[in-house]
Amino acid sequence: MIIGYREKQFNIEDMDALIERFLRYVKEYTTSNPKSKTSPSSERQLLFGDKLADELDQIGLMDVDRDRYGYVTATLPSNIEKQVPVVGFIAHMDTCPDFSGENVKPRIVKYQGGDISLENNVVISPKQFPEIENYIGDDLITSDGNTLLGADDKAGVAEIITAMDFLLHHPEIKHGKIRICFTPDEEIGRGAAHFNVKKFGADFAYTLDGGEIGELEYENFNAAEAVVTIHGKSVHPGSAKDRMINAICVGEVFDNSLPDKERPEHTEGREGFYHCISFEGTVDEAVLYYIIRDHDRSIFETRKEMVNNICKQLNEKYGEGTVTVELKDQYYNMREKIEPVMFIVDLAKDAMEELDIKPIIDPIRGGTDGAILSFMGLPCPNLFAGGHNFHGPYEYVPISSMKKAVEVVIRIAEKIAKKDV
Question: What is the CATH number of domain 2-220+333-418?
Answer without folding.
Answer: 3.40.630.10
